Amino acid sequence: FMNTMTGGQRVHTFWGYGTKEEAKVDTDRQAREYARRYEDELNEKARLRNRSNYAPSHISVQIVGCSFWR
Fold it and tell me: What is the value of pTM for the model shown?
């Protein structure tokens, strides 16, 4: 996962169950949900640290890489 504002990256592992295709779908869903929560966390931290009258710029998070292991 990459913070698009700073370029900072975070690695996270997800486990999928079932057939190979079911596991890919499951891990993709988990990764997208994690990216959404991580983005919300970063934006909340930025909002709390902001001491000005203006809202901080929105921080977005991307999934930049993925590999599957058997």
Answer: 0.77
Q: Write out the two tokens for 55.
A: 């809202």
Nearest residue to 33 via CA among 5, 6, 58, 14: 14
Question: Is 47 in a helix, a strand, or coil?
Answer: helix
User: For 6-52, how does the pLDDT look when each residue is reduced to its tens digit (9 = 90+)?
Assistant: 888 888 888 888 888 898 899 899 999 999 999 999 889 888 888 77
Both tokens assigned to 54: 């203006």
pLDDT at 67: 74
- Hey, what are 4's tokens? 């698009």
Alpha-carbon distance of 36 to 19, in angstroms, equals: 26
How high is the pLDDT of residue 57?
83
Q: Which residue has the tokens 């966390």?
A: 41
Distance CA 25, CA 6 (A): 29
